[in-house]
Write a structure and sequence with these properties.
Keywords: Coiled coil, Signal. By secondary structure, the chain is mainly α. Helix content is 70%, strand content 0%. The longest helix has 78 residues. The structure holds 2-acetamido-2-deoxy-beta-D-glucopyranose (2 copies).
Length: 207
């Protein structure tokens, strides 16, 4: 992109220079043709080859009219005019080329812009979707906490009752019942209904 911009600048600068030089040439041509001494056409100047006008380069086109204008007559004026029209044609070509180039660049920029807009849109969608999901997760979390605490409402945890992990859960139940009636001294609950009794891993010691 950078190189492109620079090129366009350089082109516009050289275009201006050229236009300036052309204006100068036209002006000096007008002044000098009148007072110039008439000369024999054959002796004074050899005719320029026709091809020269076609292989016009900027340096030739601009440099040639000045030194020869004095010694040559009308013929040079007409060839100068063809020279200027060649320059004009060249500039017009260049202008249409630059226009085409800019048009193709604009198409590309539009493409990029469209893609960018699509991505922006998609990103917004994903963001809002993400937000929604996070809200859902947090509401589910709080629901789950509620359910867990509800399901644990009737849980009791006893530490320090002798036994192993592989004992039958009816043994565990029996141990808990005797612990309640004997150790805690609450015989009314000796046959308390226990839905399920199971061993938990000790928090501080591995058993
Ligand atoms: C890019 O697209 C947006 C939305 O269509 C538009 O507002 C903006 O002018 C465009 N920009 C260019 C540089 O084309
Ligand atoms: C209970 O603990 C004692 C002493 O630590 C041990 O001797 C006994 O075998 C244990 N009983 C059971 C059922 O594991």
């Amino acid at each position: 992109m950078h190189g492109l911009v620079l090129n366009a600048k350089a082109v516009s600068v050289s275009l201006r220079l050229l236009a300036l030089l052309c204006a100068l040439v036209v002006l000096s041509g007008d002044v000098e043709v009148n007072p110039g001494p008439r000369q024999n056409a054959a002796g004074a100047a050899p005719k320029r080859p026709a091809t020269r006008q076609r292989q016009l380069s900027f340096a030739q086109a601009v440099a040639s009219p000045f030194p020869v204008a004095n010694s040559r007559g009308r013929q040079d004026r007409t060839s100068d005019i063809t020279g200027y029209s060649n320059i004009l044609a060249y500039l017009q070509d260049m202008r249409s080329e630059i226009r085409q180039y800019l048009a193709s660049i604009n198409v590309k920029i539009d493409d990029v812009n469209t893609t960018l807009n699509n991505l922006k849109h998609e990103n917004e969608q994903l963001k809002s979707e993400n937000k929604m999901l996070w809200n859902e997760i947090s509401s589910m979390k709080s629901k789950m906490d509620k359910l867990e605490s509800q399901s644990r409402r009737n849980n009791l945890r006893f530490n320090g009752i002798n036994g192993t992990f592989d004992e039958k859960w009816s043994d565990t139940e029996q141990k808990v019942q005797s612990f309640i009636s004997d150790e805690l001294n609450i015989p009314d609950y000796a046959n308390a209904e226990i839905e399920r009794a199971h061993r938990l891993k000790s928090r501080d010691a591995q058993q």
